[in-house]
Amino acid sequence: MIDIQFRRAQASDLPVIVTLLADDPLGARREDTSLPLSQPYQAAFSAIDADPNQMLAVVIDREQVIGTLQLTFIPGISRRGAWRGQIEAVRIAREYRGTGIGTRMFEWAFEQCRARGCSLVQLTTDKERPEAHRFYEELGFTASHLGFKKAL
Amino acid sequence: MIDIQFRRAQASDLPVIVTLLADDPLGARREDTSLPLSQPYQAAFSAIDADPNQMLAVVIDREQVIGTLQLTFIPGISRRGAWRGQIEAVRIAREYRGTGIGTRMFEWAFEQCRARGCSLVQLTTDKERPEAHRFYEELGFTASHLGFKKAL
Question: Domains in chain A, ordered, with CATH?
Fold first, then answer.
């Protein structure tokens, strides 16, 4: 098993995180990996880093960033005041895909959410990713909901 | 058209908000409307109220709370550092359903999200609510994603 570590992302990780986000058919159209990174990326990092209910994380193998995910801890009134952990922007470097690292990232994410008192974790994934659906079901998720999005 | 107002929820609105959340087949099983409200509800309200990226809102008609929704403003690296507005826990008092107030609540929510710089709004809804799906599509949402949830 590869000896990976997890830690909170630092500003210096941002170019690699954007590269990971862009290395995907959808992400390739959406991201701009040119350096220096454009100002909105820097501003987004600062906003995440300043928010105690956000955790942008990276996965490290031999001092290299090989994965990323973002957790949002959401307090809510419903379900008797339950906190939810929301998982977004999960990416693994191409050469590490299929090695079980995804499962370890989610197990780590669940631990972080439990430590923050969340009783539920949630995510949405594009309908066109059946292999992702199987992966999430194996992790114990139920596809009980539809995810609606709208550009503003 | 009913002359409704929107405002940020106050602690004194909490019992009505919980009653609205409970007035629903799913909510009835999940919530506890007994007074005084249990401590987790109070703690959740405080956590939401203290977080600048949360907005728990109420809809007012003639000084009465007749609806509620929660917005979460989520900074992210993906999509070139885009902010997202997430909408949860939307409820309208039974006697006001079917009057167009839902549409006005969403239009108000979109404005709040735009004012916070969000380029996207998102929500999930139970697969078993086809009438909600039509409503969201009429508002311009696309059901592009599946929503996965898992209890911790």
Answer: 4-138 (3.40.630.30)
The proportion of chain A whose per-residue pLDDT surpasses 70, expressed as a percent, equals 99
Contact A76 B44 (CB under 8 A): yes
Chain B positions touching A88 (Cβ under 8 A) are: 74, 76, 78
- Which residue in B146, B130, B149 sits closest to B138, CA to CA? B130
Helix (H, G, I), strand (E, B) or coil at B98: coil
Give the closest of B41, B43, B120 to A152, CB-based: B120
Q: Which of A24, A37, A134, A148 to mutate to test the interface with B (most CBs of B within 10 A)?
A: A148
Tens digits of residue pLDDT in A15-69 = 999 999 999 877 788 899 999 999 999 999 999 999 999 999 999 999 999 999 9
ipTM computed for the complex: 0.93
Residues 6+ apart with CB under 8 A from B55: B8, B70, B71, B73, B112
Q: What is the pLDDT of residues B2-19, one digit of tens each?
A: 789 999 999 999 999 999
Give pLDDT, residue B130. 87
**Nearest residue in B to A89, CA atom:** B78
Contact A75, A120 (CB under 8 A): no
Closest by Cβ to A147, choosing from B45, B113, B122: B122
Chain A residue numbers touching B85 (CB-CB < 8 A): 152
